[in-house]
User: Which sequence fits this backbone?
């Protein structure tokens, strides 16, 4: 389906990532946004508030993040595409409802502009430490899709993609951006509406009497209906059968809850998007996502100048994780170097899939800044020197860590 | 330090897991409970409230789980050992304050009685679906300690250990139980108070004027003071320096947050609590925790009597994960069998720690409750017949299914 | 520790013993009223003759959330919306503490609204100072639960369409025992009200109307801080004992200030201790038998 002409602000702009994501949501046909102000994601919400009314998108600023996500879950069932926007602490507050949304198979998009954590942390500076939270943050078993854009242009493009994936798989889709990308101002090209593909909702069109809200199609995703069509929907967060009615026996867990994870796990090859460069014959592969992949470019360049054969693998979608591809590459390469702005999250999944075939080196960064490319280059050189694969995740000691913990450091105010 | 007699109900009792947990908390010196009722954790608070007047403990039922944990954090700073108790959805609501507890390095215990999720799931039925959440559920980087008890006795014992580690490392500790263990009535032997070791709070002992709330000792743990002692200190959830004042530079982020991770990661050997059985000569090792280990231990005996060389590794603490020990075992055994009441969580940690050296069989069990020893036995038999090492996790399925 | 650079007598801040001078200058913008609220509060703390060692300030997130960091008592800067819950834990676990929650309208009334009404219902013995600047200022001027109808904010670019909360009415109807409101201009009255509230047993609420020259005034073209103060001067009506129903604040409308509620109700700890002594007196717990 083509995008709606009036929602697409075709043209070339010089805007920041937050605003680009807001415009992307409108272009994707998002008709309801609920949010709560939180640095550094507010600009995205403000962009929707300014432009939304002109293109028929309703927004509401709720009393907190719990309210925001609950409101969008409700709005989905009235038939529209929805999104909420937040950052770290708000994201933690949303965890209960994310699981609820997964259970209801409610398609929605969550834009998380990550900042330094834990707790209040550094609200105005960057971080990538909510990655594992996006996968595991709510209780119970579920799967999500998470996308990590690395530029304002991608914030626009992948917000649209996020909506498309949400509609296709009826699951929560997280845009795991960060403060750097959110506040980065760059050229953003918004194409014509007829060049933007928009996935329509899978509405049920059969006779009302036969409608079963959770009867899956062959790809394990059920068709959706909306309130107000006389279908007498009953939707519950309790484990439910195909009719949507609650069941109380545990045996249904492996039928109805298992499908929630299987619909992503079995379709993952269609969902996963990777960007590879020079991985053939590479001795070291730098695995990164989001802003770290842009910083890594410089480090890779430096290592290449020193003669190391380096390839890069960028995780555009971080979840579901590309287990098979990492495993294939592990057998061909000596090491993976993983720079991320946290003390080790996605690197554990790289290590898991490497199965001992390659060393895995983490270049950590606590947040409130990005990596020093020298560290990435040094980590690459360190990794390529290893005779045989190192056991476990090797934590590379960065310049920042040395300067802070090794002698004579005084904090500036 | 020995336990305070007033909280220890010495003797042999028939208690449910939940009741044993409350007794464990009181024995450990817990004197504040912030709660919000949720099935299947209710008996913990019920028991605690019954015993509170005689023990001198305080409690409050808050308006939701968000505030329940907030109140617990506040109470902990008055010098009272504090805990809260919840289940799946409530645990999700506590995620923000879990992070605050980590950042303020506030000792407290969160008892989580797992039920089937996601969403409202099956509120009365057991599951182990929140294990990864306990490690990763709040935003930002942190490390946490989590226990997984498998019996009423362990509910008592591990609750005490949870309080001790929480004080020792100044970190929130999660007791990840489940609806089955919580409701199970068993014999619980409560020793006398002088046989229970209690970790006292690590109080600051230096001169009053030079107290800095986040000045760390060698092991990265800062000593603490109570409020109302005239120190007039300030703490914040923002990234802070030794004084507890917010500073927004990456150096400070490194200075503040890296030790939060290292104070656990560098001391995993002291924290990790695992029980091994027959692993010396084992070809297959069952790795389990919580209620799953009850059946696993039974299977070890059954399989041994059939001539299979099977051992068991029971994770009393799930976090931090014993990756070194699993790696050692991986080079010795043919396969690991990992039964969990979820669709694959801790098994991923096993896969990561095995470095491709052993096969990994994953069994999900939810549909037949906890009576699945037969399935584990079948998986063990299949695993011991594997000739080559396959990559990745093999999901074991009933042949009939 | 950072040093206090100037230490000659005339340069010592009169409230130095109650402020963290090593953290000055503070982060608040010129024209902001929060500093005045803090001044009034520290003055009240002295007047009320309370041992500062036994006072604990808990703040949430936002501009006013930073107050905890500047007042030199045991102070906690907690999460957004939850200072009342955190403070409840402190008060119940150690009833000797005098607990003060100092936070903004968005923090206490939007995200923390539930905790606000429940603490008032329980009558937890604490003082809540709510600085109301009609907007979320820390994040750059979004609409707040107190933003008057038709006022502009970045997330109400076409004018606010939601009616605001009347904070004294909310506090009164939820059970607060002391409710007062003043603006940042009424520094003496405010100090007196805070002094009175500090010595009051139970859940006390003092609302402080504060100018926000950086966001609220700028977006709504209301002039600078001085003009806002002049507006307060011309448009505030002091009406003690006014029915809290009548205290709504419209866009640039008349603001009624004063002490509206001062009543007695048993506090949470009083009821709790009464229950406790009854239980102990009958030497058995609620289910009538000891232990298992």
Assistant:
């Amino acid at each position: 389906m083509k995008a709606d002409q009036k929602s697409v602000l075709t043209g070339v702009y010089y805007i920041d990532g937050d605003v680009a994501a807001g415009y992307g949501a409108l272009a994707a046909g998002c008709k309801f946004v609920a949010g709560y102000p939180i640095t550094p994601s507010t600009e995205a919400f403000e962009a929707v508030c300014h432009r939304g009314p002109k293109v028929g998108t309703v927004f509401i600023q709720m009393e907190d993040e719990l309210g925001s996500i609950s409101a969008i879950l409700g709005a989905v069932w009235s038939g529209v595409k929805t999104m909420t926007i937040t950052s770290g602490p708000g994201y933690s507050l949303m965890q209960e409802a994310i699981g609820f949304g997964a259970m209801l198979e409610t398609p929605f998009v969550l834009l998380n502009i990550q900042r330094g954590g834990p707790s209040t942390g550094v609200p105005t500076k960057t971080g990538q430490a909510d990655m594992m939270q996006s996968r595991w943050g709510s209780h119970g078993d579920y799967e999500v899709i998470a996308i990590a854009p690395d530029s304002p242009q991608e914030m626009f493009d992948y917000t649209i993609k996020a909506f498309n994936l949400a509609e296709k798989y009826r699951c929560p889709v997280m845009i795991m951006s960060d403060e750097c990308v959110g506040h980065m101002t760059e050229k953003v090209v918004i194409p014509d509406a007829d060049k933007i593909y928009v996935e329509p909702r899978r509405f049920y069109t059969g006779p009302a009497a036969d409608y079963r809200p959770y009867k899956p199609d062959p790809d394990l995703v059920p068709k959706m209906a909306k309130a107000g069509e006389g279908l007498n929907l009953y939707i519950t967060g309790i484990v439910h059968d195909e009719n949507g009615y609650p069941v109380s026996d545990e045996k249904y867990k492996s039928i109805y809850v298992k499908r929630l994870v299987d619909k992503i796990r079995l379709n993952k090859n269609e969902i996963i998007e990777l960007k590879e460069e020079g991985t053939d014959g590479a001795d070291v592969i730098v695995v990164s996502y989001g802003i770290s992949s842009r910083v890594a470019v410089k480090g890779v360049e430096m290592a290449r100048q020193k003669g190391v054969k380096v390839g890069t693998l960028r995780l555009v979608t971080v979840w579901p994780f590309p287990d098979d591809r990492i495993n294939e590459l592990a057998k061909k390469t000596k090491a993976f170097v993983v720079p991320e702005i946290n003390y080790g999250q996605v690197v554990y999944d790289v290590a898991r899939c490497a199965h001992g075939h390659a060393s895995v080196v983490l270049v950590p960064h606590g947040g409130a800044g990005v990596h020093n490319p020298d560290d990435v280059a040094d980590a690459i050189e360190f990794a390529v020197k290893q005779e045989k694969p190192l056991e476990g995740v090797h934590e590379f000691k960065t310049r920042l860590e040395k300067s802070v913990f090794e002698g004579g450091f005084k904090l500036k105010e | 330090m020995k336990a305070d007699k007033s909280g220890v109900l010495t003797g042999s009792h028939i208690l449910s897991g939940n009741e044993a947990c409350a007794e464990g908390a009181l024995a450990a010196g817990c004197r504040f409970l912030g709660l919000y009722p949720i099935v299947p954790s209710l008996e913990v608070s019920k028991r605690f409230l019954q015993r509170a007047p005689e023990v001198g403990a305080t409690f409050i039922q808050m308006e939701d789980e968000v505030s329940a944990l907030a109140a617990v954090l506040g109470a902990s700073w008055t010098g009272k050992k504090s805990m809260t108790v919840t289940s799946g959805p409530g645990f999700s609501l506590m995620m923000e304050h879990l992070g605050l507890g980590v950042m303020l390095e506030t000792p407290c215990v969160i008892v989580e009685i797992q039920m089937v999720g996601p969403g409202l799931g099956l509120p009365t039925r057991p599951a182990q679906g929140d294990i990864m959440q306990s490690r990763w559920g709040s935003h930002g980087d942190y490390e946490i300690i989590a226990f997984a008890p498998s019996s009423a006795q362990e509910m008592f014992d591990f609750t005490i250990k949870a309080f001790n580690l929480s004080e020792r490392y100044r970190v929130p500790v999660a007791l990840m139980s489940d609806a089955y263990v919580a409701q199970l009535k068993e014999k619980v032997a409560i020793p006398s108070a002088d046989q229970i070791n209690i970790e006292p709070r690590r109080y600051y002992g230096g001169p009053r004027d030079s107290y800095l709330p986040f000045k760390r000792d060698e092991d990265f743990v800062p000593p603490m003071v109570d409020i109302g002692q005239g120190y007039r200190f300030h703490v914040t959830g923002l990234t802070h320096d030794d004084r507890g004042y917010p500073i927004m530079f990456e150096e400070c982020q490194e200075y503040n947050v890296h030790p939060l991770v290292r104070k656990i990661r560098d001391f995993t050997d002291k924290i990790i609590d695992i029980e091994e059985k027959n692993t010396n000569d084992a070809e297959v090792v069952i790795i389990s925790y919580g209620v799953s280990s009850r059946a696993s231990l039974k299977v070890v005996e059954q399989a041994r009597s059939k001539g299979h060389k099977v051992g068991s590794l029971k994770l009393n603490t799930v976090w931090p994960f014993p990756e070194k020990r699993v790696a050692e075992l991986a080079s010795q055994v043919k396969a690991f069998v990992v039964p969990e009441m979820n669709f694959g969580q801790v098994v991923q940690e096993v896969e990561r720690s095995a470095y491709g050296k052993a096969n990994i069989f994953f069994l999900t069990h939810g549909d037949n409750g906890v009576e699945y020893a037969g399935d584990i036995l079948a998986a063990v038999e299949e695993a011991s017949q594997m000739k080559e090492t396959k990559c990745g996790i093999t999901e074991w399925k009933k042949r009939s299914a | 520790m950072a040093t206090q650079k100037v230490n000659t007598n005339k340069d010592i801040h009169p409230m130095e013993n109650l402020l963290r001078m090593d953290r000055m200058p503070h982060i608040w913008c010129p024209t902001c009223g929060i500093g005045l609220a803090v001044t009034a509060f520290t003055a009240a703390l002295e007047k009320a003759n309370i041992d500062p060692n036994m006072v604990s300030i808990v703040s949430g997130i936002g501009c006013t959330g930073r107050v905890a960091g500047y007042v030199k008592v045991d102070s906690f800067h907690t999460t957004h919306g939850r200072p009342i819950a955190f403070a409840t834990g402190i008060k119940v676990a150690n009833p000797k503490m005098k607990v003060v929650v100092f936070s903004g309208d968005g923090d206490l009334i939007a995200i923390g609204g539930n905790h606000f009404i429940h603490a008032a219902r329980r009558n937890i013995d604490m003082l809540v100072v709510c600085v109301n600047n009609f907007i979320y200022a820390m994040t750059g001027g979004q609409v707040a639960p107190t933003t008057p109808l038709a006022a502009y904010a970045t997330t109400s670019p076409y004018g606010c369409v939601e009616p605001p909360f009347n904070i004294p009415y909310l506090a009164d109807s939820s059970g607060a025992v002391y409710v007062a409101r003043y603006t940042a201009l009424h520094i003496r009255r405010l100090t007196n009200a805070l002094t009175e509230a500090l010595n009051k047993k139970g859940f006390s609420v003092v609302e402080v109307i504060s100018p926000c020259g950086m966001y609220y005034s700028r977006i709504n073209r209301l002039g600078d801080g001085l003009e806002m103060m002049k507006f307060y001067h011309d448009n505030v009506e002091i009406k003690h004992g006014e029915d809290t129903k009548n205290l709504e604040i419209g866009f640039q409308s008349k603001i009624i200030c004063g002490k509206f509620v001062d009543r007695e109700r048993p506090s949470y700890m009083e009821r709790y201790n009464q229950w406790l002594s009854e239980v102990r007196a009958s030497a058995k717990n609620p289910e009538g038998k000891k232990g298992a």
Q: What stands out?
A: Chain B has two domains: 9-194, 275-395. Chain B touches chain A through 79 residues (CB under 8 Å).
